[in-house]
């Protein structure tokens, strides 16, 4: 019990990793399929402006302004995509650099919050509060259930948008839904991983799972497993060696990715060898 | 613009597709300039025309994938797309699938099974037992375990057809279905479409640039170039003068590659 109270920050961080890592990994399977990596990076960076704005407005915990600002940027991306002839990449680069510049400008005006602000850049497991942990748990369960509830439509949408429309999926609604849940998941995960690295926890588990999976079901399950290993392993290493959380979690994920790459190569080589043997006999 | 040689389809039959005065511009470029057509049920109809003639756009407008500037379209006698789309199958030109998405043919087809509310929780055997009753024998059963992103162009088109047929459609719309398929594959593909049309007695509307296929299999042809330039039986529309109207240049379908006595006029021309 004494250990528990002495290490409460670690328990909170571990619980947050258990909630957020699988959520990011699950979304990552569809983010990579829909070429939305840059989108998640843009909303992550825009969250920085939300954090700065929150501190500047006097919030001691800027989670709500952070989520609202990211959602605003996500809506702006969709709106500009639909109403202008600009390429989506251009729109996102514009909003990413604009919101980072805006955030840094406000940061320069902050008095006394600069250390807390910088914690959002690289993640800080000691900074996870009870409120944030509860928010992460509720959002993870809620978003996870919503994604599984809409899994048929989301899968078809990721395969081909026009086919999804003809099969009766409300494509526009589902696009907004996915963008919304991704934005909220990214914003909430920033506390643990930091703005710079949150996209990594979305992309790397899905990519690692793809190396070894033979079906989409396997890819989802493996991505969840890689996310969990990276999150829990990363937080443990952070605590043991007193190193920053975000980079540790991401490097753990990259380590797992490297292992899956080796497994995939070995399997492919074994497949070729047995193919040659089959032909020879 | 009315072609003096045009023949119109017999009236009085129920219509599978009815398009009235459809207009659409992309910016300053008009793509559809008052397209009207009526396709009775049970036909295998081809929409032909040069690049940019509005064939794909017309198909997309029919399916509600593109909003026209004005004009209306009705499928299977119903103007409400949300009600009629479950009775329609669609085969897109291509599937721009990311290689990182590991969906298999089985998982993809399971999405179209009416009984499948969530493919993730369905076992492989239960999906297979449902597919057995519904999956047409078009060469897809042997590749159920393959990832969709690793299929050849021809295999992918067969999977897309199987997907659209799993919904038991009354109307099948295909958009340049042989783009990305090699020439022998193209031939067998069109034969497959014709066979499906005969066996299931459904209406098929096919966007194509392949005039030899149109000549062989279509029962009716619309030549499009922003408007319907000409319509009629394949023999009629393949008339060089009609094609000239549709394509704006002189083209002849009578480029002989080899003789096929089964085809009237034995033409095998490609535009």
How would you characterize this protein structure?
The complex is a heterodimer of chains A (281) and B (271). With 281 residues, chain A is mostly helical. Chain A has one domain: Orthogonal Bundle (ABC transporter involved in vitamin B12 uptake, BtuC). Chain A has helices at 2-6, 8-33, 37-56, 63-83, 88-109, 114-122, 130-149, 151-159, 161-166, 171-193, 198-212, 216-241, 245-280. In chain A, helix 2 runs antiparallel to helix 10, helix 3 crosses helix 10 and helix 3 runs antiparallel to helix 11 (198-212). Chain A is globular and about 75 Å long. The N and C termini of chain A lie far apart (65 Å). The model of chain A has no long low-confidence stretch (mean pLDDT 89). In chain B, strands 5-6-7-3-8-9 form a 6-stranded mixed beta sheet, sandwiched between helices. In chain B, strands 2-1-4 form a 3-stranded antiparallel beta sheet, covered by helices on one side. Chain B has 9 helices and 9 strands. In chain B, helix 6 links the parallel strand 6 (171-175) and strand 7. Chain B has helices at residues 55-62, 81-84, 105-110, 124-134, 153-166, 183-200, 211-217, 234-237, 240-247, and strands at residues 15-26, 29-40, 44-48, 70-75, 88-91, 171-175, 203-207, 220-224, 228-232. Chain B is 30% helix and 22% strand. Chain B has 271 residues and is of the alpha/beta class. Classes of the chains: A mainly alpha (281), B alpha/beta (271). The interface between A and B is medium-sized, with 31 and 36 residues.
